[in-house]
């Protein structure tokens, strides 16, 4: 649930000016992430592009409700330090894990299976992130890609590829910066 600690950190992060390279998710997107994860028992979430932790907080607050966890990947050490502080301030350390390093290299080493994958990192690498993450998602799992409308020039091909693949069901959600929600039907 969204206890007072979580609410305070979310409010602080949403009020702070976005600092590159970590641009936080918008409020409605955060609530959507929480709503997607909270009803799932033992929901395992992989986040590619942890940033300063706002999306992680939304995901982890949902995952802890029925026993899940969030594994986040972040390459920038300064941003990772902010992530750790914000996750601690929200009291969510028990439900989160941060893997520091390049997302592509890290994704090739992960062996877990996830229910939800959230992509919010380098836009030009979304296609590769998806290909690597797809092997970490069983049928019924979901891959969400943020910023597909705000970065349409870079991500239109990503959305089109998901929507034309018969082993997936994918839809662009016009929420905030745009989310491509992709359900995996076949391995």
* Large-scale geometry: globular
Number of helices: 7
Number of strands: 7
Largest sheet: 7 strands, mixed
The helix fraction, in percent, is 40-55%
Beta-strand residue fraction: 15-25%
Please list the strands of the largest sheet in the order they lie side by side.
3-2-1-4-5-7-6
Give the helices and strands as they follow along the chain: HHEHEHEHEHEHEE
User: Which regions have little confidence, pLDDT < 50, spanning 5+ residues?
Assistant: none
Rg computed from alpha carbons, rounded to a whole number of angstroms: 15 Å
Q: How confident is the prediction overall: mean pLDDT?
A: 95
Compact summary:
With 187 residues, this protein is an alpha/beta fold. The protein is 42% helix and 24% strand.
Question: How is this structure best described in words?
Answer:
The mean pLDDT is 95. This protein has a 7-stranded mixed beta sheet, sandwiched between helices. Helix 4 (77-90) links the parallel strand 2 (69-74) and strand 3 (96-100). 42% of the residues lie in helices and 24% in strands. It is of the alpha/beta class.
